[in-house]
Recover the amino acids of this structure.
């Protein structure tokens, strides 16, 4: 009789080995699947980072960059869709920059939109692409205020969505991360996956998403800086062109006026000046000399300055009264001058060679007159209202002509408030007394020497302090 024991034992052992082998085969296959999944995710991430790096270094538009980020991270973590919201300029809202087509709503949706979407899905898509949301509201606002990346297994049940209407059925899993660059919040990046899509986001997906969000914030921040730099260069180029045009509007040389030497100079604090001076040939031996200061700085002041010059030139011809000329300028410009702006001006008319001149002052600083006979400087300040303050009646009642008689060697100095208001390192103003003294010492040397001396004294006083306002001077010397 044959003993069956050893054979049974052997068969049992073989069976056990087969079971164990099948078990480990399954685990090995699963491990290979995980490895392939991780390798695929790693490959997609490297491709995404490569594309992102090219976008940063290239000239990609911001919209293309936003789309690249959302579509790229969707691909890396195999999400259904994603969205990028950035904070509005006033800091009050999160504004959608790009929402992919298949992305479930990540913000509350008004009931009327949901009703319309039931008939036409495009209503919901349009709403999600355009609707901004308060910066502290909902899941995205919660992520931004928390300042950390989130893995939300069920968006609809999250406390931040409490009592909110959403446009999806079933469970939606969300990865969300705040975008921050150079210590400043930029917005929120989020991707979503429906539970029906299969397995949820893994811990590795979350780690990858968080890392990609950080890189995306860096890309967006640098792209914005690059764009702002480009815009600044373009604006500066346009302003330089405007400055060249403005230079054409200023006299290139002093006028030839029998019996007088006249000089003028303008030194803008910025590219565009709100000051101006002008010499106008009025015919029949008469000449007009104007100096003006538009309140404010930059382009608005420069544009108003150009308008004022043009209007005065059109009115000055044939007008022998400086006050009436300024009244005409005021009436024409009043409607176009903003309430927070005005123009101060002095307009002088030289008629003949005998030294008699007439002057009108529209809210401008006093003029200084040097008398050669006494060596003294006197302030000339007839009454007058600035242009743009009143429509006409009050201006014309207050602003009057003032006659001045200059003898040989006398000199009249007109200047804008950028001279007296120049400040030194201690924030002390140059002041009217210093202007008068610098003028008194240099006036015997002539009109141009007087202007040069005042400029020189202002520069010595202010040192390395920045010029805060335009500086314009005009000197009229009687030969």
């Amino acid at each position: 009789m044959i003993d069956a024991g050893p054979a049974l034992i052997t068969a049992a052992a073989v069976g056990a080995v087969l079971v164990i082998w099948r078990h480990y085969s399954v685990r090995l296959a699963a491990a290979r699947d995980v490895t392939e999944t991780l390798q695929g995710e790693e490959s997609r991430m490297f491709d995404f980072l490569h594309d992102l790096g090219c976008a940063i270094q290239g000239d990609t538009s911001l919209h293309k960059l936003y789309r690249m980020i959302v579509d790229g991270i969707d691909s890396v973590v195999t999400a259904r869709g994603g969205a990028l919201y950035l904070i509005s300029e006033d800091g009050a809202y999160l504004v959608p920059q790009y929402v992919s087509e298949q992305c479930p709503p990540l913000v509350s949706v008004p009931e009327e939109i949901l009703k319309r979407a039931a008939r036409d899905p495009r209503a919901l898509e349009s709403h999600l692409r355009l609707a901004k949301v308060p910066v502290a509201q909902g899941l995205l606002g919660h992520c931004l205020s928390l300042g950390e990346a989130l893995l939300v297994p069920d968006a609809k049940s999250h406390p931040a969505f409490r009592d909110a209407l959403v446009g999806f059925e079933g469970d939606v899993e969300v990865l969300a991360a705040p975008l921050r660059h150079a210590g400043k919040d930029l917005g929120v990046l989020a991707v979503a996956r429906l539970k029906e899509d299969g397995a949820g986001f893994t811990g590795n997906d979350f780690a990858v998403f968080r890392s990609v969000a950080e890189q995306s914030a860096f890309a967006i921040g640098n792209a914005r800086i690059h764009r702002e730099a480009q815009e600044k260069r373009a604006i500066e180029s346009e302003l330089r062109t405007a400055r060249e045009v403005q230079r054409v509007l200023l006299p290139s040389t002093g006028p030839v006026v029998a019996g007088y030497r006249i000089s003028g100079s303008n030194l803008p604090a910025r590219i565009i000046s709100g000051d101006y001076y002008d010499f106008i040939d009025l015919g029949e031996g008469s000449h007009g000399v104007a100096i003006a200061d538009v309140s404010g700085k930059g382009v608005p002041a420069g544009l108003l300055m150009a308008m004022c010059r043009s209007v005065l030139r059109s009115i000055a011809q044939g007008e022998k009264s400086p006050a009436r000329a300024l009244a005409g300028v005021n009436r024409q410009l009043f409607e176009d001058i903003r309430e927070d702006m005005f123009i101060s001006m002095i307009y002088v008319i030289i008629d003949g060679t005998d030294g008699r001149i007439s002057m009108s002052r529209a809210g401008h600083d006093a003029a200084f007159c040097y008398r050669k006979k006494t060596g003294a400087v006197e302030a000339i300040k007839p009454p007058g209202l600035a242009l743009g303050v009143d429509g006409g009646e009050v201006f014309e009642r207050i602003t009057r002509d003032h006659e001045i008689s200059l003898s040989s060697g006398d000199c009249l100095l007109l200047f804008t408030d950028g001279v007296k208001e120049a400040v030194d390192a201690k924030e002390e103003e140059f002041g009217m007394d210093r202007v008068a003294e610098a003028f008194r010492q240099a006036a015997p040397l002539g009109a141009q020497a007087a202007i040069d001396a005042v400029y020189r004294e202002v520069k010595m006083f202010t040192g390395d302090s920045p010029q805060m306002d335009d500086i314009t001077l005009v000197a009229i010397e009687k030969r």
Notes: The CA atoms of residues 95 and 132 lie 4 Å apart. The chain has two domains: 33-226, 245-478. The mean pLDDT is 87. The radius of gyration is 39 Å.
